[in-house]
Amino acid sequence: MASIFSRIVAGEIPSWKVAEDDRYYAFLDINPLAEGHTLVIPKQEVDYIFDLDEETYTGLWQFAASVAKAVQEVIPCKRVGVAVLGMEVPHTHIHLVPLQTEGDLDFRKEKKHLSPERFAEIARAIAVAFNQQTV
Ligand code: 5GP
Question: 3-state DSSP call for residue 41?
Answer without folding.
Answer: strand
